[in-house]
Amino acid sequence: MTSPVAELTEAERRDLEAVENGFGRFARYLVARFGAVRSSMLATAAITLVTFLTCLVTYEIIGLDYLGNPISVVMPVVMPIVTAFPTTLVIHRLVAATMARERQGVRQQAALRAAAEESALHRARAEKTSQATSDFLASMSHELRTPLNAIIGGADMIRNQSLGPVGDDRYLQTAEDISLGGMHLLQMINAILDLAKLERGAHIYQLEAIPVCEIMDNAVRIVRGQAEQAGVAIRFTPPPEQLQIICDDQAMRQVMLNLLSNAIKFSPTESTVHVDAATGTDGRICIRVADSGVGIPEDQLDDIFQPFVQVDSVRTRSQQGTGLGLALVRTMVEQQGGQVSVESTPGQGSVFSLAFEAAAKV
Ligand code: ADP
């Protein structure tokens, strides 16, 4: 976009128009009609002819030389009038137009300099804000996590009656509620801090080629206990060893754990969660976690990747959750160069897919 300061003044615009429209239009007509080479030859011939013809119209001055003999001098009379006036006009217009362009250039440069200075100022301000956010998060992390751990620890001590029996059983129930609530809050704080760190781009990924089979196997092993407790079976179909993707081991484990624990959480007992991987038609490797659980309504399929969005279902309400798991998944996957997508049918189940470019084989 041209800055208003770089706009031409009315007089400058007229000069430019005179040059561009007057000579420009004629020149464009000639080039369109005769072609560039023939046009310039024609123009040269026309000027030469006019100059030659004007030289033919002459007048004679009769005078005396220094010895007193009469002499006559023949002068061309029309040429100066015919050629000098339009030439002066053309030169004047060209000079004015060139100066207008130059002034416009100078103003444009000044506008660009001003814009660059402004953007540097914005960047400095944004960096300062980002630093302030980092400091705030670091201190919040400490200020909240430390007392929360003390609360959870104290509640667990009462719940486990570590220092001796508790008189009334209702105290035990209260201590359990405090401990579970505290743990949920801690989980939430950790997820918020993780997401804030990821969104600031402050997380450093250790990218390397890792066999997909290894990533999936590690995650499945971790959630086996949770699945057994929920009465859900996990069927893992290991992909071929040579399928590899470039990713961060820790981050991918976190991504897989979030998807698997959701699949287990939202599945009915005695159902099966399928975990597999394949190479898609586009050559990318696709890791899939499929469940036959509650499913997600179509109009919420995009929203669930936003922080704090939870589908309002009986199953969601009965499950513990922060509403941050999928936001973390999407951010981490995209920051590693992959893509996450979901297909779902309410009442029948969901399939979450992670697509990554296959790592080149060495
Ligand atoms: P939460 O901690 O609530 O699980 P997530 O960000 O992981 O947060 O998920 C957001 C919401 O998406 C969940 O609350 C749930 O409503 C829906 N969801 C996620 N995974 C599944 C799934 N496998 N089946 C059905 N619904 C799901």
What does this molecule look like?
The protein is of the alpha+beta class and 362 residues long. 58% of the residues lie in helices and 16% in strands. The protein folds into two domains: 1-199, no CATH class; 207-356, Histidine kinase-like ATPase, C-terminal domain (Heat Shock Protein 90). The chain has eight helices and nine strands. A hairpin with a 3-residue loop joins strand 8 and strand 9 (349-356). The structure holds adenosine-5'-diphosphate (ADP). Adenosine-5'-diphosphate binds next to helix 6 and helix 8.
Task: Offer a concise description of the structure.
By secondary structure, the chain is an alpha+beta fold. It has helices spanning 10-34, 36-56, 78-159, 169-199, 212-230, 249-265, 314-318, 325-335; strands at residues 58-64, 70-76, 207-211, 233-236, 244-248, 272-279, 285-291, 339-345, 349-356.
Question: Top keywords for this entry?
Answer:
362 residues, alpha+beta, 2 domains, 8 helices, 9 strands, disordered N terminus, binds adenosine-5'-diphosphate
